[in-house]
């Protein structure tokens, strides 16, 4: 025991000395920022319960581009549409690196599209985009799949016969089945035990990712990796989910017909076989397991959480629900299911979906980036590998672009005649080379699920609209919607 304490104290002293040394000898010309303390960095200046909000407050003092120390970790924060676009689009090549996310890095070890860098990332991104398109992303085939899956959802909803229930599980099942059809070539029954376990794991992973443990681990992984504690939960959950994915890949391998690829996994296995003799190939089992895991997790919770929030907001603003009903009735009617082509004739509904995504700001601080080379940016010099935080929420809530950014108001996306109005500051999917791979499928899902649910049901809450609290239950990596009950009344 004494030896352990001695080791911890020596390690901490070493870390303090190393961080002090790094600060004194830092290369580059960094943007301004608050004075850091050795070891703690600027932690004491942040509200750990709402770090993105603290970033925003600091940007008012230090400007849209500033330097911050999260513990011993130095990051440069980008705030507001102009700085974000200038970096992610105008300097796209330099800002497209994936920054360090220590809490998940010890599982992924740089494999899989979402955390990869360099040539590996380019190969996996290109392959993923092409394969998602081949399996129907942005096309009629995936539209039909969503329409069909939405009917299964309605069937489950009807079983509640207007009684209150928490929609989280069913929304996760239905949205997850879309990405499962593409990645695993099949949909799952909502009672399937393997499917339920995978969804539970995904849910817990996002909760852990947004927990204070993950935040601390991202700052102090150097020490924390050697100690027990809550930070190990995420590691274990990811390992469990990885085992499920590996099992599905095994099933594909055993039944693979190279002439008839059924899904994303088959296509990847075929590439692996083609590049078998190439020692530097990126078509490896590790990249397959982790890319499939990335797509499964990214394609499930993001969309179901957005839909959940959309339903909650409609209960809080019944006048908005009423207008959506009217638009659905006049454009789609009740004799056919909603289709993507309806979107251009439904500016109000489209605006409501955009406004939901804007207000809830699901990835408030984006996913960390890093610069891939020494980069001149706005008169500063950011050395290669500098970690970058893209504060997407600062654009989504920018009063320059949205008249009343903290209020839910679909008019933010409508012109005076009621036509849909685009807004450059709407960037929940980020922008540039690293922007969300699933944006078009996500947009299709949000529109089709939202309109299909509201075509069939009116929403009812047991609370008065003014008492409905829409604040997230957790904010961190993701803004996680609150738990609530709703009743669905047939229309
Ligand atoms: C409402 C739904 C969604 C939102 C708001 C969203 C948002 C985002 C954001 C902000 C990023 C980080 C971009 C960056 O690094 O700058 C991202 C990355 C990613 N998203 Fe999505 N996403 C959604 C749905 C999906 C879906 C359905 C899929 C799967 C088909 C998906 C797959 C991915 C992948 C693989 C990445 C990593 C891309 C890379 O590192 O190159 N996302 N998403």
Molecular structure report:
The mean pLDDT is 93. Helix 6 runs antiparallel to helix 7, helix 6 runs parallel beside helix 17 and helix 7 runs antiparallel to helix 13. The protein has one domain: Orthogonal Bundle (Cytochrome p450), CATH 1.10.630.10. The protein starts with a helix and ends with a strand. The strands form four sheets. The chain has a five-stranded mixed β-sheet. A two-stranded antiparallel ribbon has the order 5-6. A two-stranded antiparallel sheet has the order 8-11. The chain is 51% helix and 8% strand. Bound molecules: protoporphyrin IX containing FE. Protoporphyrin IX containing FE binds next to helix 12, helix 13 and helix 17.
Keywords, separated by commas or semicolons:
alpha+beta; binds protoporphyrin IX containing FE; single chain; 5-stranded mixed β-sheet; two-stranded antiparallel ribbon; 491 residues; Cytochrome p450; 8% strand
């Amino acid at each position: 025991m004494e030896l352990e304490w001695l080791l911890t104290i020596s390690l901490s002293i070493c870390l303090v000395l190393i961080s002090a040394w790094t600060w004194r000898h830092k290369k580059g010309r960094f943007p301004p920022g608050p004075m850091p303390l050795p070891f703690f960095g600027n932690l004491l200046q942040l509200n750990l319960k709402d770090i993105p909000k603290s970033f925003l407050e600091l940007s008012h003092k230090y400007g849209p581009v500033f330097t911050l120390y999260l513990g011993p970790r130095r990051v440069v924060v980008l705030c507001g549409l102009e700085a974000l676009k200038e970096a992610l689009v105008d300097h796209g090549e330099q800002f497209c690196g994936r920054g360090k996310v220590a809490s998940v890095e010890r599982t992924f070890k740089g494999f899989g599209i979402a955390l990869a860098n360099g040539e590996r990332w380019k190969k996996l991104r290109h392959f993923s985009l092409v394969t998602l398109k081949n399996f129907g992303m942005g096309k009629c085939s995936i539209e039909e799949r969503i329409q069909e899956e939405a009917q299964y959802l309605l069937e489950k909803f009807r079983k509640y016969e207007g009684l209150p229930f928490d929609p989280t599980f069913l929304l996760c099942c239905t949205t997850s089945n879309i990405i499962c059809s593409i990645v695993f070539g099949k949909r799952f029954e909502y009672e399937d035990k393997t499917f339920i376990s995978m969804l539970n794991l995904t849910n817990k992973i996002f909760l852990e990712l947004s927990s204070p443990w993950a935040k601390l681990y991202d700052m102090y992984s150097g020490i924390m990796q050697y100690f027990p504690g809550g930070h190990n939960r995420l590691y274990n959950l990811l390992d469990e989910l990885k085992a499920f994915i590996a099992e599905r890949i095994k099933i594909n391998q055993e039944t693979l017909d190279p002439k008839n690829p059924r899904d994303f996994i088959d296509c990847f296995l075929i590439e692996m076989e083609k590049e078998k003799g190439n020692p530097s190939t990126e078509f490896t089992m590790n990249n397959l397991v982790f890319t499939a895991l990335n797509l499964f997790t990214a394609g499930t919770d993001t969309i179901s959480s957005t839909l959940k929030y959309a339903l909650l907001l409609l209960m809080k603003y019944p006048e908005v629900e009423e207008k959506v009903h009217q638009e659905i009735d006049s454009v789609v009617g009740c004799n056919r299911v909603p289709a993507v082509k309806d979107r251009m004739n439904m500016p109000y509904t489209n605006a409501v979906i955009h406004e939901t995504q804007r207000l809830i700001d699901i990835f408030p601080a984006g996913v960390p980036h890093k610069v891939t080379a020494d980069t001149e940016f706005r008169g500063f010099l950011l050395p290669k590998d500098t970690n970058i935080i893209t504060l997407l929420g600062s654009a989504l809530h920018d009063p320059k672009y949205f008249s009343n950014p903290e209020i839910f108001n679909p008019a933010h996306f409508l012109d005076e005649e009621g036509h849909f109005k685009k807004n450059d500051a709407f960037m929940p999917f980020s922008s540039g080379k690293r922007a969300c791979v699933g944006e078009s499928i996500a947009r299709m899902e949000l529109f089709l699920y939202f309109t299909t649910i509201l075509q069939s049901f009116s929403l009812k809450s047991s609370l008065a609209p003014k008492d409905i609290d829409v604040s997230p239950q957790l904010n961190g990596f993701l803004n996680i919607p609150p738990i609530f009950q709703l009743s669905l009344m047939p229309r």
